[in-house]
């Protein structure tokens, strides 16, 4: 068989034109397959979360979603109405839920007889309604409603008589996401400019991306330091990376380290991190690509087709399946999923083509080397 290939590849072979034509056909077919393989692998309709509605938040065991009858929390298949719920958060073995109830936060899964499979509640103090919550050790940081704006409150978990201390903001802030850090927390959202800001509409001042750092000494109100104010928009996601943290926003995305904040020039509607340390950024309806940030490296992958929905929530499960939820312009709810491991898998179309290219190249180079060696042995002149 190898000798037959040798004869086809020899310059003076009577099969020279036949081999050239076959090679040209292979190149054309290969180029078509390579073009197909440039689309992101592992994309399919539907979600891995298994609920019928618009997902708002989720943890490993729970999903908060909007159904036809209002907001529902599904915990390990058990569904409970939660009309005003806004968040779910893993805290140790517990799942915490912001139910929109004044002075209370719900929890489940404590291993006890009463609250292991049924939702219980603990007090966060009077006149406070939590929209987001994050734990750091025994300390809890809450985003609480303060009139038409948001504030931060801190308390100790397990305190039988909690007296959360609320930070006083001079500015109008709308806060949406929290992530714990070694020093405290990073918080993302937006800062609303005052009326008549730079000639803006006084009835509707613009909102700008906001990243703040919050620390708490356990005594005074949480200390707030502005890390960055970006372009017009909102920070919707915060993720830990190898080099620091990544803040994703509707205007830009920011790499945050101890010494700097660097904009990378990518906007997004929603984002999520996978199990390989990558952060996936999804744009608006009609977007043809998805950006993937791994440390300081950015990769842009082509989607098989433009996004059919306005993404509102994204998450990644333990198997690496990313689910993106949203609705179209007619409010039709839909979702799609991506296998985050497929794009680097050898069994994907791209992986198969790459392997095939390597094997064919090695085969051709080996035969050419064989011919050259044979020619040298026979004393032929090149």
Notes on the protein architecture:
The chain folds into two domains: 67 residues, no CATH class; 212 residues, Neuraminidase. 16% of the residues lie in helices and 43% in strands. The chain is built from three helices and 28 strands. The strands form seven sheets. The chain has a four-stranded antiparallel sheet with strand order 1-28-27-26, with no helix packed on it. Strands 2-3-4-5 form a four-stranded antiparallel sheet, with no helix packed on it. The longest helix has 30 residues. The chain starts with a helix and ends with a helix.
Would you identify the CATH architecture of the largest domain?
A: 6 Propeller
Q: What's the number of structural domains?
A: 2
Outline, from the CA principal axes? globular
Quick one: how many beta strands? Answer: 28
Global structural class:
alpha+beta
* Helix proportion range: 10-25%
Radius of gyration: 28 Å
Distance between the termini: 25 Å
- Nearest-integer average pLDDT: 85
The total count of helices amounts to 3
* Broad CATH class of the largest domain: Mainly Beta
As laid out across the biggest beta sheet, the strand order is 1-28-27-26
Please outline the major beta sheet. Answer: 4 strands, antiparallel
Low-confidence segments: 12-16
What is the CATH third-level topology name of the largest domain?
Neuraminidase
Query: How much strand?
Result: 35-45%
């Amino acid at each position: 068989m190898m000798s037959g290939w040798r004869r086809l590849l020899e310059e003076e072979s009577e099969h020279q034109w036949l081999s050239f034509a076959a090679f040209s056909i292979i190149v054309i077919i290969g180029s078509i397959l390579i073009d197909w393989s440039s689309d992101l692998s592992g994309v399919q309709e539907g979600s891995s979360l298994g609920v019928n509605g618009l997902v708002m938040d989720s943890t490993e065991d729970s999903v908060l979603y909007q159904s036809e009858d209002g907001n529902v929390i599904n915990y390990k298949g058990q569904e409970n109405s939660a009309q005003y719920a806004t968040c779910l958060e893993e805290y140790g073995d517990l799942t915490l839920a912001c139910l929109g109830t004044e002075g209370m936060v719900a929890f489940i899964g404590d291993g006890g007889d009463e609250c292991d499979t049924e939702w219980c509640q603990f007090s966060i103090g009077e006149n406070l309604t939590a929209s987001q919550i994050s734990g750091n050790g025994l300390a809890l940081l809450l985003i609480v409603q303060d009139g038409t704006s948001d504030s931060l409150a801190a308390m100790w978990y397990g305190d039988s008589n909690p007296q959360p201390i609320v930070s006083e903001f001079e500015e109008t802030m709308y806060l949406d996401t929290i992530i714990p850090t070694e020093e405290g927390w990073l918080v993302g959202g937006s800062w609303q400019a005052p009326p008549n800001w730079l000639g803006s509409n006084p009835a509707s001042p613009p909102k700008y991306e906001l990243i703040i750092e919050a620390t708490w000494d356990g005594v005074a109100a949480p200390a707030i330091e502005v890390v960055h104010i970006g372009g017009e928009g909102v920070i919707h996601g915060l993720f830990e990376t190898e080099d620091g943290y990544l803040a994703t926003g509707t205007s830009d995305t920011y790499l945050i380290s101890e010494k700097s904040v660097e904009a990378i020039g990518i906007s997004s509607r929603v984002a999520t991190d996978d199990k390989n340390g990558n952060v996936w950024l999804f744009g608006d309806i009609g977007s043809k690509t998805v950006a993937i940030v791994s440390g300081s490296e950015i990769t842009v992958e082509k989607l098989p087709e433009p996004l059919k929905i306005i993404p509102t929530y994204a998450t990644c499960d333990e198997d690496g399946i990313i689910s993106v939820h949203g609705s179209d312009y007619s409010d039709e709810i839909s979702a799609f999923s991506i296998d985050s491991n497929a794009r680097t898998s050898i069994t994907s179309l791209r992986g198969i083509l790459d392997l095939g290219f390597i094997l064919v190249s090695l085969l051709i180079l080996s035969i050419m080397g064989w011919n050259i060696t044979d020619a040298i042995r026979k004393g032929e002149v090149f």
